[in-house]
Amino acid sequence: MSKLKKHINRSSHLFLPLSVLVLLIIVNLIKGADYFRITMVNGAFYGNIPNILFGASELVILSIGMTLVTAASRGQDISIGENGAITSAIFVWYVLNAGEVTLLTILVGFFISCVAGILIGAFNGTLVSVFNVQPMVATLILFLGGRSIAFMIDGKVSPILANEISNKIGTVIPGIPIHTPIILTAVFIAIVAVVLKKTNLRLYVESVGINPSAVRLNGIDPKKIIFLTFLIMGVCSAVAGFIAVNKAGRHDSVNLLKFIMMDAILAVALGGNSLGGGKFSITGSIIGAYTIEMLNRTLLRLEVNPEAIKAFKAVFIIVLMVIASPVVRVFVRKVLDKAKTIGKASSLSTPDSRQMD
Amino acid sequence: MESPNTTKPKTRLSNSNLLFMIAGIIFVLMYGFALIRYPGSFMQFQTFFDLFNLNAALFIVTLGLCVVMIAGGIDISVGAVCGLVTMACAMLLQSGAASIWGALLLALAIGTAFGVLHGFLIAYLEIQPFIITLSGMFLAQGLLTTLHKDPINVTMPAFVALRNYTIEIPWLGTVNRLGYFIPCEIKPGVIVVVVLIILYAILMKWSRFGRNVYAIGGNSQSARMLGINVKRTRFFSYVICGLTAGISGFVYLMTTGAGNIGNGALFEMKAIASNVIGGILLNGGVGNLLGAPIGTMTLLTINELIRAAGVQSNLQAIVSGLLLYLFIVLQSIVMSLRGERKFRIVLPPWLKP
Question: How many domains does one find in chain A?
Answer without folding.
Answer: 2
